[in-house]
Amino acid sequence: MFNLILFGPPGSGKGTQSEKLIARYGLKHLSTGDLLRSEIANQTPLGLEAKKLMDQGQLVPDEVVIGMIRSALAANPAAKGFLFDGFPRTKAQSEALDALLTTYNAAINVVLALKVSEEELVKRLLNRGLTSGRSDDTKEDVIRARIAEYHAKTSAVADYYAQFGKVVMIEGEGNVEEIFGLLCSAIDAKKAA
Ligand code: AP5
Ligand code: MG
C-alpha cells in the first residue's frame, strides 16, 4: 500500500489536487470533510451534531472522525492505498491513524504539505462561498476561525510527521497544473526511494 496525507490549511487546494492525484495513482480518496457533509446531507444524528461545530469553524471531536476513518479503511480492503484529505487534523488523530494503519501492516509513506498565504486562503474561500453552498465558506469570520483552528491544533500534525522525516513542503500558490506537477514529483521521488 502507498498511503499519503495531503496536508494544508482550509482552502489550500487539498480537494482540488486530491481529485487529480487519485486519478493518477489509483488511490482511494478519504476526506473527513466530505464524509461529514454527507452525514449532514443525510441528516444523521452525527451529522446534525457535527454541523453545529463546522458552522463555527471548529473541529469536530477526534473520536468522531477517527471512527469514520476506521470504518472507511475496513470498507476498502482491496485499496492500493489511501489519500487522506483533511485528516489527521490533530496530534491525537495522527497517532490514531498510525496505530490503525499498523493493524493493516501499513504506514503513511509521505505527507505533502501545501503552503498558501492567509490572504490567498480567505480570498479563495470567500470566492467559493458564492457558489459552493458550504455554509462555512460564506462568512469571513468563520473562515478566519477555521484558519485559527488550523494554527492552534492542526499545524501540530506536520510537526508530528516531520520527526519521522515524512513531510515535503509544496508551494501551493499559482497554477493548479503546476502545483499538481510538484506533488507528482514528490510522490514519484518517494516511491523510487
Ligand atoms: P474540510 O472539508 O476538510 O475543509 P477545509 O480543510 O476547511 O478545507 P477546504 O475543503 O475548504 O479546502 P481545500 O484545502 O480542500 O481546498 P479546495 O481544493 O477546496 O473541513 C470542513 C470542516 O469539517 C472543518 O472545519 C471541521 O469542522 C470538520 N472536519 C473535517 N475534517 C476534520 C477532522 N479530521 N477533524 C475534526 N474536524 C474535521 O480549494 C479551495 C478553493 O480554492 C476552491 O474554490 C478551488 O477551486 C480554489 N483553488 C484550488 N487551488 C487553487 C489554485 N492553485 N489557485 C487558485 N484557486 C485555487
Ligand atoms: Mg476540501
Structure report:
The chain is of the alpha/beta class. It has a single domain, classed as Rossmann fold (3-Layer(aba) Sandwich). 58% of the residues lie in helices and 12% in strands. The protein contains eight helices and five strands, in the order E-H-E-H-H-H-E-H-E-H-H-E-H. It has helices spanning 14-25, 32-41, 45-54, 62-75, 91-103, 118-129, 140-162, 176-192; strands at 4-7, 28-31, 82-85, 110-115, 167-171. The radius of gyration is 16 Å and the shape is globular. The chain starts with a strand and ends with a helix. The model has no long low-confidence stretch (mean pLDDT 97). The structure holds BIS(adenosine)-5'-pentaphosphate and magnesium ion. Magnesium ion (MG) binds next to helix 1.
Strand % is 5-15%
The helix count comes to: 8
Q: Which ranges are low-confidence, i.e. pLDDT below 50, for 5 or more consecutive residues?
A: none
The distinct bound ligands, ions and cofactors come out as: BIS(adenosine)-5'-pentaphosphate, magnesium ion
Report strand order across the widest sheet. Answer: 2-3-1-4-5
What is the averaged pLDDT score? 97
Q: At the third CATH level, what is the topology name?
A: Rossmann fold
- Characterize the quaternary organization of these chains: single chain
Number of strands: 5
Computed Rg: 16 Å
Reading off the top of the CATH hierarchy, the class is best stated as Alpha Beta
Secondary-structure element sequence?
A: EHEHHHEHEHHEH
- Given the C-alpha coordinates, what overall shape results? globular
How far apart the termini lie comes to 15 Å
